[in-house]
Amino acid sequence: MPDREIIILVVEDEPLILLNVLDFIEQEGMVALGAANAVAALALLEKRPDIQLMFTDIDLPGAMDGLALAEKVHQRWPQINIVFTSGHILDRSVVMPADSFFVSKPYLDKQVLRLFHSILNPAQTALSKSPISQRS
Amino acid sequence: MSEGLNSPSFLGGGGEMGALMRQYDWASSCLGSAQSWPQSLRVTIRLMLNSQHPMFIWWGKDLVQFYNDAYRATMGPAMHPKALGAKGRESWADIWPIIGPQIEQVMAGRGATWNEEQLVPINRTGMPENVWWTYGYSPIDLEGGIGGVLVVCNDVTQQHLYTEALRAQAKHLQLQFEQAPGFIITTRGPDHVFETVNAAYRKLLGERDYVGRSVREVIPELADQGYYELLDRVYQTGEPFVGRRMPVDLKLAPDQPVKRSYVDFIYQATREADGSISGIFCEGQDVTDHVLGEERLKLINGELQHRVKNTLAMVQAIASQTLQQVEAREPVDTFLQRLVALGRAHDTLVQEDWSAAEMRKAVLASIEGLTRSNSIEVSGPDVLLGPSATLALSMILHELITNAVKYGALSNDVGKVRIAWMIEGRGENRELVFLWKERGGPPVTKPKRTGFGSKLVGMGLDGNGTVKINFDPEGFSAEIKAPFEQLQRR
Predict the structure, then answer these.
(1) According to the model, what pLDDT value does residue B140 have?
(2) Does residue A24 surpass a pLDDT of 90?
């Protein structure tokens, strides 16, 4: 697999958390873009179609929450991988797009990064069992 | 002068009153000797004296009085025997306003009277008492006119009081039914025609014309909500139906929008004496407030839990950023991991609405996702833990697991961990015993100093429990005991 820039979009309305996530992604040598709501996220995606992964909070302010945003992204840019996070426990009524992932808040930087790598380079990183679990 | 043995035959018999009549000095009265009395009076007196019905006669313009033994039984010493041969207006002065006009009516030739269950107070014993009478005044003819009045009467006081009591009881029951806090209705027949409806039901469905109309007519908005079909089924099968928190959409008035309510209720078939189904009895409660309250509470609880975990995530972010320059990464990582463990303990509690968590669930949540979770054996009875014990257990398990992964049985490929708990003792002295036992890890050495992790474990499940730590070279083990009742507190 040729080396290329990994670009990750982080959608999080809590500035402190957003700052920290952007920071640990950049420290990992990837490009991190931040958005505080779904509208801002869509605007960014229009400009940067080379984004490979979107890490979004489910609970977002405004008319569109993380699930609605993901549905739009999935239709328009099906190649973008989606990872959700939330402080809520997910009940069965929450339906996430196929092939998406979920990380419960609070999470460890390392765990999130390991998940990103396993999604983007499945051959190199064996998807180890961790508190991060795949849902579909 | 008494009639004595020579009294006329029409005064024969008649018990006490017959005797009194015969002894009476009629010759000195305004009526003159009994021998001289007109035929119609004689016939009536004979009839009266020989009847077991209470009877009474007023005769002539002075309304001179005669009565029989049965009537005498209704009179006290204040009346009897002086009423015999006395004048009516004087004898009955106290109730003349009631009976006077009726007697005048009969005497004037305007026909007989009939009264049922009429209250006519009388004075049997010197004290006035309420007596209910069914009685009639009939004319006694005399030479083309009216000579007197025959009274045939019946003391119906017992019957009257009994009927009154029944009526009062029925009214009381009706009132209880009407004022019952729950709704109650009864319907008749296969079309479910309303028979009775109480206030609570009218409050739920609004004022409508219920009685005598079918459920489908009265509550058309119930179509497609399944209730007609439920009623039909109960009527057909006779099997009762119990509904819990069932939604129902009703219109309080035809021009009002539909309003959603929730009800607990029972439909039960009512039966005729021969066992056939006659209708349906329905009783229930409007539980809308409870259901909405619970939904709100759930929402608030969910929001709160989200806030708690979001705050933990913020602390996580602040710590990550603040501690970036710290060279020693291990304590930083340990701290961040403990925050994650705390967040997960919250999840377990939230899933149980913060009341009590199943111990097994809390243990499994702590080991879920571990690379070597299948090297951990978990066993123990079903035990419910209160919120603080659940948090303590989750944090202790986090420390034990972290330690095992770093240095103990989970640090190699062959080690095993056994987690077990049991209840010892009885009654108030019951204790929960929690065991953690490692085998197959690298040889164990006692650490030189006690860290926060060991202190956390040392506090036990109730904050001051008995904890035994054993650094057996074969494997680390811990035994934690705590009073059982204590662990279920909030």
Answers:
(1) 95
(2) yes
Q: Does A64 touch chain B (CB under 8 A)?
A: no
Q: Identify the pLDDT of residue B340.
A: 87
B264 plus B356 within the same structural domain: no
Interface of B to A at Cβ within 8 Å reads 302, 305-310, 312-318, 320-321, 333, 336-337, 339-340, 343-344, 347, 350-351, 368-371, 373
Residues of B in contact with A130 (CB under 8 A): 369, 371
Q: A108 touching B, CB under 8 A?
A: yes
Total count of residues recorded for chain B? 490
What are B76's two structure tokens?
């006290």
Question: Number of folded domains in chain B?
Answer: 3
Task: Say which amino acid occupies B248.
Answer: V
> Which residues on adjacent β-strands are paired with residue B149?
B58, B139
Q: Which chain B residue is nearest to residue A19, measuring alpha carbons? A: B317
Domain layout of chain A by residue ranges: 7-121+128-134
Q: Which residues does B487 contact at the CB level (< 8 Å), separation at least 6?
A: B383, B385, B386, B389, B432, B461, B462
Nearest to B369 among A16, A87, A129 (CB): A129
Residue B409, domain CATH: 3.30.565.10
Q: B436-456: per-residue pLDDT in tens?
A: 999 998 988 887 777 777 878
Residue B390 covered by a domain? yes
* CATH number of this structure's domain A7-121+128-134, picked from the four choices 3.40.50.720, 3.40.50.2300, 3.40.109.10, 3.40.50.1370: 3.40.50.2300
Q: Is A134 on the interface with B (CB under 8 A)?
A: no
State whether B317 and A89 contact (CB < 8 Å).
Answer: no
Give residue A1's pLDDT.
44
d(CA A34, CA A116): 16
Helix (H, G, I), strand (E, B) or coil at A135: coil
Contact criterion met (CB < 8 Å) for A131 and B373: no
- B284 neighbors B264 (Cβ within 8 angstroms): yes
pLDDT tens track for B43-68: 999 999 999 999 999 999 999 999 99
Same domain, yes or no, for B444 and B412? yes
> In this predicted structure, what is the pLDDT of residue B278?
95
Domain boundary among B286, B321, B351: B286
Choose the closest CB to A104 out of B318, B343, B371.
B343
pLDDT in tens, A64-113: 999 999 999 999 999 999 999 988 776 656 677 778 899 888 898 888 99
- Say how many C-beta atoms besides its own lie within 10 A of residue B136's C-beta: 16
Query: Where in the sequence is the domain holding B190, given as residue range(s)?
Result: 180-286
Whether the predicted model's global pTM rises above the 0.80 cut: no
Of B79, B76, B72, B71, residue with least CA distance to B55: B71
Which residue, among A84, A108, A132, would best test binding to B if mutated, counting the most B CBs under 10 Å from its CB? A108
Where chain B has pLDDT below 70, the residues are 1-6, 123, 126, 352-355, 490
